[in-house]
Amino acid sequence: MDLATVDHLLTTTRVVRRRLDLSRPVEPEVLERCIEIALQAPTGSNAQGWHFVVVTDADKRAALADLYRRGFDLLADTYASGLPYPEGDLRARQFPRMYESAAHLRDHLQQVPVLIVPCIEGRFETAGVAIQASLYGSILPAVWSLMLALRARGIGSAWTTDHLFFESEAANILGIPESVTQVALLAVAYFTGQDFKPAQRLPARERTHWNGWGVHR
Ligand SMILES: Cc1cc2nc3c(=O)[nH]c(=O)nc-3n(C[C@H](O)[C@H](O)[C@H](O)COP(=O)(O)O)c2cc1C
Question: What percentage of the chain reaches a pLDDT higher than 70?
Answer without folding.
Answer: 100
